[in-house]
Amino acid sequence: MDSSPPLVSVVLLNYNGKRLVKLWWPILNLEYPNYEVIFFDNGSTDGSQEDFRRLASSRPCLATRILGVGQNVGYSKANNIAVQHASGKYVVLLSNDVEVTPCWLTNMIRFMESRPDVGVAQSVMYQLQNHSKHDVSGNYIDVFGFNHRLRPPSRPVEVFYSEGAVMFIRTTVLRDVRWLFDDDYFMFYEDVDFCWRAQLRGQRIFVVPDSYVYHQRGGTVPGVVMRLDPKYVRTNTRNRLATLFKNYGAANVLKYLPVSIALEILKGCWLCVNRKSLAGFACFRGVVDFLFALPHLIPRRRTVQTRRVVSERVILRRIFGPSQAFRELTAYAGQLKVNMVRPVTKT
After folding, report:
1. Among the residues of the chain, which ranges form H helices?
2. With contact defined as beta carbons under 8 Å apart, do 161 and 195 qualify?
3. Residues of the chain with CATH 3.90.550.10
4. At what angle are helices 250-273 and 230-247 packed, to 10 degrees?
5. What is the pTM of this model?
6. Maximum Cα–Cα distance for the chain, whole Å?
7. Per-residue DSSP letters for 156-195?
8. How far apart, in whole angstroms, are the C-alpha atoms of residue 298 and residue 293?
């Protein structure tokens, strides 16, 4: 029996990450003895690809490959292309705004090797600016598809999805699920969709605290992605509704999707009333985008549903119910309104 550590393919996705180059050096100096780094450049124009090339040249014994495309094709499609070049038993999707720790890879692979039932896993993320503070991450959804936060766990904990910023995937899972991310998503919510499809094929998703990193949230997208940014609102709305449509069984599509659409319309109206009309109209546009995409989504839904092996009842046990969803949404709306009227403090 081969007892050597399995090969791991670390996919480092980059888009104009020159200001983040200092975070990449630890990736090339991990204590894990058997890994490769695939640097995939997503149409950068700031010279960051050459910066990585210089870093990699100082580690000639480490297997590194530099790939890329000439334009920004989006987070989803870029990762889809990159993983096709991975040779490892495990693939790790890593954002360019993440600083890894020396034991990060060793501890996660040790966990996954001991748990063959776990197909996808995520490291715990702390804030890059404050290593003692947990980086807010989702990892759970409710019946309407809205994200809910994970409290920092003290032991490995099962979740609904792994965030794409640092996602570990067994290569066998990629083959079984058939595709990683939907290219149409461009970015946002593709991690929820993939993990939902993986669960429908019998996979389990865990967050593992012994494997931890530091994350500069919003480092890839210029500035911090604001919840009221119209591009974010529109894309996230469309992708969330598409994810519900593809992955729910027929009964729950009819039960929860219309309510979810109504909530988006209500949210859009609320934002307009509160003088955030650009974000409000973005909600409406996201709903319209989803409706126009239905002819394309129907065959994808058919593929997902015909291949599922896990019952709807099992999936619903891992999702927050309507009452908790409404409590969280009400609290979030109140917090959002406070933030909208809070004066900006100049530093």
Report:
1. 48-57, 75-83, 104-114, 171-177, 190-200, 230-247, 250-273, 277-307, 312-316, 322-341
2. yes
3. 8-215
4. 160
5. 0.92
6. 66
7. -EEES---TTEEEEEHHHHHHHS-SS-GGG-SSSHHHHHH
8. 9
169 alpha carbon, distance to own chain's centre: 12
Q: What is the pLDDT of residue 220?
A: 53
Radius of gyration of the chain (CA): 20
What values do phi and psi take at 126, rounded to 5?
A: -110, 160
pLDDT, tens digit, 9 for 90 and up, residues 278-326: 999 999 999 999 999 999 999 999 999 999 999 999 999 999 998 888 8
**Lowest-pLDDT choice from 1-10, 26-35, 153-162, 335-344:** 335-344
Mean pLDDT, range 42-65, rounded to an integer: 94
Residue 49 pLDDT exceeds 90: yes
Classify 67 as helix, strand or coil. Answer: strand
Angle made by CA atoms 19, 183, 239, in degrees to the nearest 5: 90
Q: Which two tokens stand for residue 64?
A: 């590194």
* Residue 274: burial class (beta carbons within 10 Å; 0-12, 13-18, 19+): middle
Which residue type, as a one-letter code, is found at position 167?
Answer: M
* Residue range 8-215, CATH number: 3.90.550.10
Q: What is the residue whose two structure tokens read 């099962």?
A: 158
pLDDT of residue 325: 82
Q: How far apart are CA 189 and CA 309, in angstroms?
A: 23
